C-alpha cells in the first residue's frame, strides 16, 4: 500500500473478556511524524500497536488511512513494517539475506533486490557485517538488522515495540539517535512504544501518554514535560513530589495550599476533560500538588518561610539531591548546588509557577 497523508484512529478499543486493555483511542498520525506511545507496564501501549498492525482485531472504533478504512484489512495488506523487542531475525540467514528476504518474497527483479538491500545495509552501517549470521552480532547490530529489514520495504508506517529494551544503557542512547536519524533520512512515519519517558521525550515529535488503557495526554515533548495534563502524567514525567492536600485559597488559576506549617502558591491545572471557564478548584477541595525536585531548591536565606531538615543527600552530577522533611512531616525531593549535610536545617524555595495543583481524582495509587 502506498503512503498516506493521515492515519486516523477513532474510538479504537480492545477488550479482553470484560477488561478494556484499550479504550476510546482517538489519534491522528500525520505523514512523517514520530509518535511515541508512552506509559507504565500494562497501560495498553502494545495493544494499541497491535491493533494498528492488524495483529489484534478491534472490539470498538475504526482506523482510517486517508479515506480508506483499514482496520478490516489483514496485516499484510496494510503495508506496515514492524520492529520488535526480540528482533525476530532468521537465525540461519546472513544479515544480507535477512534484509533481502521481504524484497524476494515480493518477487522483485534481482537487480532491484540487490540495489535496495545494499542501500539498506549502508544505511544502518552494517557493511562490514553483511555476511555474518545474527548470532555473530551484538544486540545493537541485530536491532539495526531488524530496522533495515522493516524499512527496506519502504513501509508507509513503521511500528516499533520497545525496540531498545534488550540493549545496555550506552547502546540504548546511541540507538535512539540512530533510529531518529533513520526516521528522518528515510522520511518514515513511525509509531514507537516505550515505557521510558526520556526515550520518548528525546525521540518523538508527539507523545501519547496512556494509563489503564486510556489516553491521558497527547502533546509535544515540551507540552507533556512542562504542562502534564493530569497528576498521573506528572508522576510519569519526573514530578517526584506529589502531595495530597486541601486547597486553602483560590484566586483564578492561582491557588494557595498548606505546606510545611506555612502556605505556598501553585497553579491550578485544568483537567483535559473539563470545559473551559469557571474556577478549576475551590477552597476546601482535595487536590494533588506536583513539583519536580529541580524546582525545589535549598538555600540559607529565609525568604519563603518554608523550612525543613535534611535527611538524605546524594550526588547527582553537578548538583546534590536532598530529601528534606518539613515540620508537618511531608518529605520533599529537592536539589541544591550548595553543600548540605543530613541533620542540617535549611530554607526551601519553590520556583514560582512550577508547583502544579490538580483536582484529586480519587484514585488511590499515589506513590
Ligand atoms: P507492557 O509494557 O508491559 O507490554 P503495555 O502497556 O504494552 O504493557 P498491553 O500489553 O497492551 O500493555 O496490555 C494492556 C492490558 O491488557 C494489560 O492489563 C494486559 O494484561 C491485558 N492484555 C493484553 N493482552 C491480553 C490478552 N491476549 N488476553 C488478556 N489480556 C490481555
From TrEMBL:
SUPFAM superfamilies: MOP-like (SSF50331), P-loop containing nucleoside triphosphate hydrolases (SSF52540)
UniProtKB keywords: ATP-binding, Nucleotide-binding, Transport
Superkingdom: Bacteria
Keyword Ribonucleoprotein found: no
Domain ABC transporter: 7-237
Single GO molecular function: ATP binding
Annotated signal peptide: none
The protein's name: ABC transporter ATP-binding protein
Record organism: Kribbella qitaiheensis
